[in-house]
Design goal:
By secondary structure, the chain is of the alpha+beta class. The chain is built from nine helices and eleven strands. The relative contact order is 0.06. InterPro entries: HATPase_C_sf, HATPase_dom, His_kinase_dom, HisK_dim/P_dom, Sig_transdc_His_kin-like_C.
Length: 383
């Protein structure tokens, strides 16, 4: 049962076919019902015409037969009919709205429309021929639109249900992400405090202080990220920051920690580009992308980070010379749990997408990816 509700191509096709069959079946049944009712109304008008023909063309009719014929005539209370002579002069109207029948121009136009929409029913009398023209009853006219109204209502219901469950699912995801982030920050917090204490002790020892400073940078950075992750789910405070400095510092930080066989390139169109950012989270996104690039290139190649300042947006492009991402996987890489690595939870790119799109109201996507040119990720942030 669980597999049936999964969002797979087969299930999507099955749902599409179900909708097609449902709508097609509704139209077929409704159209058949309308056509049947239309035929019945035609038969009623023919009976009405035959009754008039007998009553008008025979001098003597048995009283019981006459009563029956009058009932046929009187029972037509819904189908508009107009009786005309062979010169198309109107002799009688029945069930025609008074605002039409009382106006010569309107009744003439109404008759003209009836002659176009329905074939006349002929009445043969001793004095000549008369004709009956008729129109569908109001009920039949309304039923003709019933399938369309039904389909519209069902479509609205399906759309609303889809929107509701999608929104509910996204809300549940948000709570899950917030819970995971806070729990991760909480679990990291205790060993981080211990590490910071050990760093202070190392400073007192006669060892290379350069290494101690680098360790201190790592712990401080990790502490920043843990602190920010603990606030995910609450209101995000974005502060005006120079995105050029933040991006450059992130690249320099990784330059000393990734393989020396990786070449780093950085370029920005301006020295200062101010954006409202959460620096620790934005820096973490860039760090995650660059680490993925290094893994894809097997720690040998080129990583380029380029910032372009436009009037309303800033475009950040991160390029690598790796083997690229297969096209069939490109739509899945931002999904939670998806990973091509033997180790890892597959949450990095998914979290990066949430940080850029949910917290910074920007966009992140794959610009292109191929074996020949590597992969390029693009981040677009509004000013």
């Amino acid at each position: 049962m669980k597999k049936f509700f999964q969002n797979t191509p087969i299930n999507r096709w099955l749902f599409f076919l179900f909708i097609c069959f449902f709508f097609g079946g509704t139209l077929y049944v409704s159209t058949r019902f309308v056509n049947k009712l239309k035929l019945e109304e035609k038969q009623k008008v023919e009976s009405y015409a035959k009754a008039l023909e007998i009553l008008s063309g025979t001098d003597f009719v048995d009283s019981h037969v006459q009563e029956f014929l009058f009932k046929i005539v009187e029972n037509n209370t819904s189908i508009p009919v107009i009786l005309v002579d062979q010169n198309f002069e109107i002799l009688e109207t029945k069930n025609v709205p008074s605002q039409i029948s009382d106006n010569d121009k309107k009744i003439a136009k109404y008759l003209k429309n009836l002659r176009k929409s329905h074939e006349a029913i002929e009445i043969i009398l001793p004095t000549g021929k008369n004709y009956i023209y008729y129109e569908n009853s109001d009920l039949l006219n309304q039923l003709r639109y019933y399938p369309l109204i039904l389909i519209c209502l069902i479509s609205l219901f399906i759309f609303f249900s889809y929107w509701y469950f999608k929104t509910l699912r996204e809300t549940e995801k948000s709570y899950l992400w917030a819970g995971m982030a806070k729990e991760t920050a909480h679990q990291i917090g205790t060993p981080l405090s211990s590490l910071m204490g050990w760093i202070e002790l190392l400073k007192l020892e006669e060892i290379d202080q350069t290494s101690v400073k680098e360790i201190e940078k790592d712990v401080y950075r990790l502490n920043q990220i843990a602190e920010r992750f603990s606030k995910i789910g609450s209101s995000t405070e974005l502060k005006p920051s120079n995105v050029v400095d933040v991006s450059r510092r992130t690249m320099e930080y990784l330059r000393n920690r990734l393989s020396r066989n990786i070449e780093f390139k950085f370029h920005a169109t301006d020295d200062e580009i101010l954006l409202n950012l959460s620096e620790p989270l934005f820096s973490w996104v860039l760090e995650n992308l660059m680490k993925n690039a290094a893994d894809a290139m097997e720690n040998k190649g080129l990583i380029g980070l380029y910032l372009t300042d436009y009037e309303d947006t800033v475009v950040i492009s991160l390029q690598d010379t790796g083997p690229g991402i297969p096209k069939k996987l490109q739509k899945k890489i931002f999904e939670p749990g998806f990973t091509t690595k033997k180790r890892g939870w597959g949450l990095g790119l998914s979290l990066a997408k949430r940080i850029i799109e949910d917290y910074h109201k920007g966009k992140i996507y794959i610009e292109h990816s191929s074996k020949e040119k590597g992969t390029e990720f693009t981040i677009v942030l509004k000013k």
